[in-house]
Design goal:
The chain is α/β, with parallel strands linked by helices and 310 residues long. 35% of the residues lie in helices and 22% in strands. The protein has a single domain, classed as Ribokinase (UDP-N-acetylmuramoyl-L-alanine:D-glutamate ligase). The strands form three sheets. The protein has a six-stranded parallel β-sheet with strand order 5-4-1-8-9-10, with helices on both faces. Helix 5 links the parallel strand 8 and strand 9. The relative contact order is 0.16. The model has no long low-confidence stretch (mean pLDDT 94).
């Protein structure tokens, strides 16, 4: 992986309000004794930051409100070295907000008020279509209107850009969209929602992946948490075990994975080279609290991977 990587992210940007609690509450239950912190999030912005910290040149297209939170999002992206000419400030919606609870084992519950993210319609995104000619990899998620995701994937396909779709939060996808996807990256829950196959491990993940391949996706990578990842392209299914770490907070681990995967591929790596990089970035993200605050830099990932080989 020697080429300079250029990654275009079209997606969401939020402010995250997180409470770390001893355990996640059941329905109607109040848990006290938590610790509160504020951070930047949104799957799109998260994946952009994850890619940037691993050395890629990154462009981001998204919507925020004309409010202090929107200004904070823009400032944060610029501080990371991400160009913000594609960040649109809309008048009639607030910046998106995520409310997050995280327990001692790193498990989380998340609720999102999408706000301005839902204003990223195809006409707004189309104003930045010139970035498609610049990008080597396009990275999308499902926290913006599905019509915009479909437009972006089609525009990328027309220009020969490799397209990764992280289908999160999970929803049913139309048959016309899936053939536009070069790589689909659901977690176990998302794979089950998309296919009806209960995903419990690599074997059932393979069955779910094969179902999606028959609908036109070129490659499916199912992330399985502590069980690693399953990559399937129709001719082979490869299981990559997870790297062992002491998990503190799994929030953003999937975003770290997707950002790193985009970097590895944009830099000229094969799937077999890019997937361990993504696996390592996701593992390290679990060792720190928050989303963007947890994403590792390239030197940290490389040192981690070297240590595992000893």
């Amino acid at each position: 992986m020697t080429k300079a990587a250029r990654v275009l992210v079209i997606g969401s940007a939020n402010m995250d309000f997180t409470v770390a609690v001893p355990r996640l509450p059941s329905e109607g239950e109040t848990i006290t004794g938590g610790r509160f912190y504020v951070s930047h999030g949104g799957k799109g912005a998260n994946q952009a930051v994850a890619a940037r910290r691993l050395g890629a040149e990154v462009r981001f297209v998204g919507c925020v409100g004309q409010d202090p939170q929107g200004d904070q999002v823009a400032d944060q992206l610029r501080a990371e070295g991400i160009a913000t000419e594609g960040l649109i400030h809309v008048e009639d919606a607030a910046t998106g907000v995520a409310l997050i609870m995280v327990d001692r084992e790193g498990r989380n519950q998340i609720a999102v008020a999408s706000g301005a993210n839902l204003h990223l319609l195809p006409d707004q995104a189309r104003e930045h279509v010139s970035l498609m000619a610049w990008a080597q990899v396009l990275l999308c998620q499902l926290e913006i209107p599905l019509s915009t995701v479909e437009w972006a994937l089609a525009a990328g396909r027309e220009r020969g850009v490799l397209a990764i779709l992280n289908p999160a939060p999970a929803q049913q996808l139309p048959d016309r969209l899936l053939p536009l996807v070069d790589c689909l990256t659901p977690n176990a829950v998302e794979a089950e929602i998309l296919t009806g196959v209960a995903v419990k491990g690599p074997e059932t993940a393979t069955r779910a992946a094969q179902h999606l391949l028959t609908r036109g996706v070129r490659r499916v990578i199912v992330t399985l948490g502590a069980q690693g990842i399953l990559s399937c392209d129709g001719t082979s299914a490869l299981h990559f075990p997870a790297f062992p770490v002491d998990a503190v907070d799994t929030t953003g681990a999937g975003d770290a994975f997707n950002g790193a995967l985009a970097v590895g591929l944009a830099a000229g790596g094969t799937w077999e080279e890019a997937l361990p990089l993504a696996n390592a970035a996701a593992a390290l993200a679990c060792t720190k609290r928050g989303a963007q605050t947890s994403f590792p830099r390239r030197a940290e990932v490389e040192a981690f991977m070297r240590a595992l080989k000893r």
